[in-house]
Amino acid sequence: MDFVLTEKDAPVALEALREQGFRTVTPPEGWLVKAFDEDRLVDLIFRIADNDVTEALLDRAEQMTASAVRLPVLEATDLVISWLIPMSEHACDYGSMLPQVRALREQVDWDRVAAVTQDSPYAFTFLTLLERLGVISHPVNPDGDSKWP
Questions:
Q1: Angle at the Cα of 79 (from 107 to 147), degrees rounded to 5?
Q2: Pairing of the two strands 40-45 and 32-37
Q3: Cα–Cα distance between 82 and 116 in angstroms, integer?
Q4: Are 149 and 52 in contact (CB under 8 A)?
Q5: CB-neighbour burial class of residue 106 (10 A; exposed 0-12, middle 13-18, buried 19+)
Q6: The predicted structure's pLDDT at residue 67
Q7: pTM (two decimals)
Q8: Are 131 and 122 in contact (CB under 8 A)?
Q9: Are strands 40-45 and 2-4 parallel, antiparallel or unpaired?
Q10: What angle, rounded to 10 degrees, do the helices at 94-104 and 121-133 form?
Q11: Alpha-carbon distance values, 32 to 29, 38, 40, 58, 94 (Å)
């Protein structure tokens, strides 16, 4: 399970999980902390691709029900951006993203995705692939707001 939170909230969340019996770990990566309930992993992510998680990102989250629990979930546009920004020549698996993006396609502001990721050749290539496959029904316009998160 992955949770996104601000860096200032990470120690509080980690301590709360520790008090509930989770084993906690601070890995060297510097963008998340981890908690384990036996072999079940919880990632507490406070930085996505060198971008600090902000209150604005969390404010855009949508309330959804998962197993009868209402939770804030990153909006589809932010989720897709969070997948595309880290892409590089060493991490560029379009095949695993394609089914997820197909499922979310109507919920995503593709122009905003294009604006935020416009400096990434890997994101540009993925958006072009989505256009060619008909997942996106029109060419994206990267001229919008590129601020993220």
A1: 95
A2: antiparallel
A3: 10
A4: yes
A5: exposed
A6: 86
A7: 0.85
A8: no
A9: parallel
A10: 60
A11: 7, 19, 16, 16, 24
